[in-house]
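Database export, one record per block. Field names are fixed; values are copied verbatim from the stored entry.
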Amino acid sequence: MSRGRNPLPNSMKTGKILLDPKPLDEIPSPPDGLNEYAIAAWNELGELLVEEKILTKFDLDMLKHYAQVASLLKQFELYFASHEAELFDNSESKIIRKNPYVEQYLNIGKQLASIADHFGMSPKARGKVGIKSNKADKEQDKLSQFLAGNSERSDEDINLD
């Protein structure tokens, strides 16, 4: 005769979280296999998350995924800087069709936004993560500047005009 399921620990019965992740004090070095754009995204976002005391060792895989997706987005931006978003058909009718990379670019942007919510990079997600914003500190808030697109990273090589 079987005994059934193993009993749950008391801490799980009361709803207490068993894992108590401690925020990291510094960013670990980027994992192997990241290209230069991914490493830049890893370091830039990692610094902000460590400063806000959000990044834990459990978040490193998600940070790596964010860096990889941000790298793909950057590569598409570089591609579109030198290529058209619309293509002409080679037939005599000159039908305009959308570049197939545009759809991939939009999907990657959505994926990046979804991952960014994990780290509290939207107003709604910041409330869930517990980032407190003080109006006096708003001008110095690096995370807000990053989200507004005023990061220290320079994108001068990209011209989408």
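Remark 1: Residues 31-147 form one domain.
Remark 2: The radius of gyration is 21 Å.
End of record.
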